[in-house]
């Protein structure tokens, strides 16, 4: 079985970069899996705010659940981009 950490490394070297929407989905699950619930103030900058909202939308997920969802998002993305 592939670990979360291995999938994160694979995601960093995807041949086709993810769309902004896909990136934000990866980002939200990654932050929830590595930090837990969002613990920062909402930023003013639009790009940072999009990342903040992606992370905040995953609030309440356990670290293990967030890792599992990240892996599923990766698998779905790879299947779509082939």
UniProtKB/TrEMBL annotation:
<dbReference type="InterPro" id="IPR035984">
    <property type="entry name" value="Acyl-CoA-binding_sf"/>
</dbReference>
<dbReference type="GO" id="GO:0006631">
    <property type="term" value="P:fatty acid metabolic process"/>
</dbReference>
<protein>
    <submittedName>
        <fullName>Acyl-CoA-binding protein</fullName>
    </submittedName>
</protein>
<dbReference type="InterPro" id="IPR022408">
    <property type="entry name" value="Acyl-CoA-binding_prot_CS"/>
</dbReference>
<dbReference type="InterPro" id="IPR000582">
    <property type="entry name" value="Acyl-CoA-binding_protein"/>
</dbReference>
<dbReference type="GO" id="GO:0000062">
    <property type="term" value="F:fatty-acyl-CoA binding"/>
</dbReference>
<dbReference type="Pfam" id="PF00887">
    <property type="entry name" value="ACBP"/>
</dbReference>
<keyword id="KW-0446">Lipid-binding</keyword>
<dbReference type="InterPro" id="IPR014352">
    <property type="entry name" value="FERM/acyl-CoA-bd_prot_sf"/>
</dbReference>
<feature type="domain" description="ACB">
    <location>
        <begin position="1"/>
        <end position="82"/>
    </location>
</feature>
């Amino acid at each position: 079985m592939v670990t979360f950490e291995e999938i994160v490394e694979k995601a960093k070297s995807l041949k086709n970069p993810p769309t902004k929407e896909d990136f934000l989905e990866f980002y939200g699950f990654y932050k929830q899996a590595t930090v837990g619930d969002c613990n920062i103030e909402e930023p003013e900058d639009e790009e940072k705010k999009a990342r903040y909202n992606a992370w905040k939308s995953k609030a309440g997920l356990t670290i293990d659940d967030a890792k599992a969802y990240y892996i599923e998002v990766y698998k779905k993305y790879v299947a779509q981009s082939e």
